[in-house]
Design a protein that fits this description.
The protein is of the alpha+beta class. The chain has seven helices and eleven strands. It is flat.
Length: 272
């Protein structure tokens, strides 16, 4: 990938926003649909631009995902503070201050959040379709006044995001442990320092963990595992499976007797 791809996506978002504002300035109500389409494209470009910063942690299949909400979910699974706004300040000498120091704000970033995408993206999509029979029976015709107001509000939000003098700033609060319990590779999990309990996955094998007290110097790690007893009543063996392994078709052998097991759906007689 080109190293400037995130910048190009921001430019695409600005171009889409410009066209949307042009359509909204017209009196033709049917151009509102064109504005809604451009605003959706702007949201997509902003989300993909941010996702580019996480390209090393996202899989190739993840990077093929086009729905902004799904892309955001994938990013938040990697870093729970991926879409929080950022403000950067610098401490400088100031002889007039009591402390001899003062903070100077360098810049701030307004981020498009998951809540913003959930609230606006699908709403814009609904403007691109003919109203359903139920909607037409209720209102008689599209409510262009409501559509225009909603598009203007979304346009203002996108403009505030794109006008930030800082953008795509990535901040990580990271818990590092010697090794993953499944793949033995170094374990790195990004956490939200404001939460007592965080969830994360190994970037190498996808093994899941719950982390408590992540920022107090002694994090408590709980792997997402379950003990599965051997189906042979005469055997007391138990296999330990990770949550992502408990799917139909997964196979393993009992560690005690060696009996082959497989997860499958089944139906049984209802107990009276």
């Amino acid at each position: 990938m080109n190293e400037s791809l995130d910048f190009k996506l921001r430019c695409l978002a600005k171009e889409s926003l410009t066209r949307a504002k042009k359509y909204l300035a017209e009196t033709d109500n049917y151009l509102i649909r064109s504005a809604a389409l451009e605003l959706r494209l702007a949201i997509e470009s902003i989300v993909y631009s941010r996702a580019y910063k996480y390209r090393d942690e996202l899989s190739c299949n993840d990077l093929e995902t086009w729905q902004p909400r799904k892309v955001l979910d994938l990013m938040l699974a990697v870093n729970p503070i991926a879409w929080k706004g950022t403000e950067l300040s610098l401490e400088v000498d100031d002889t007039a201050s009591k402390t001899g120091k003062r903070w100077v704000k360098i810049g701030a970033e307004v981020s498009l959040t998951l809540q913003d995408v959930k609230k606006h993206y699908d709403a814009l999509g609904s403007f691109l379709h003919t109203p359903t029979l139920a909607q037409l029976s209720k209102s008689g015709s599209p409510d262009f006044l409501r559509m225009r107001k909603r598009c203007i509000d979304i346009s203002d939000l996108i403009e505030s995001v794109l006008n930030s003098n800082m953008w795509n700033i990535r901040i990580n609060v990271e818990v590092c442990l010697p090794e993953c319990l499944r793949c033995d590779q170094p374990l790195r999990i990004f956490v939200d320092p404001k939460k007592e309990v965080n969830r994360g996955k190994c970037f190498n094998c996808g093994a899941g963990y719950t982390i408590k007290d992540a920022t107090d110097g002694s994090p408590k790690l709980k792997p997402h595992q379950s003990k599965i007893p051997c189906v042979d009543d005469q055997c007391h063996g138990e296999a330990i499976l990770w949550t992502d392994q408990i799917v139909v078709g997964y196979e393993w052998a009992c560690p005690l007797c060696g009996l082959e097991h497989q997860i499958s759906f089944c139906a049984s007689e209802k107990a009276n």
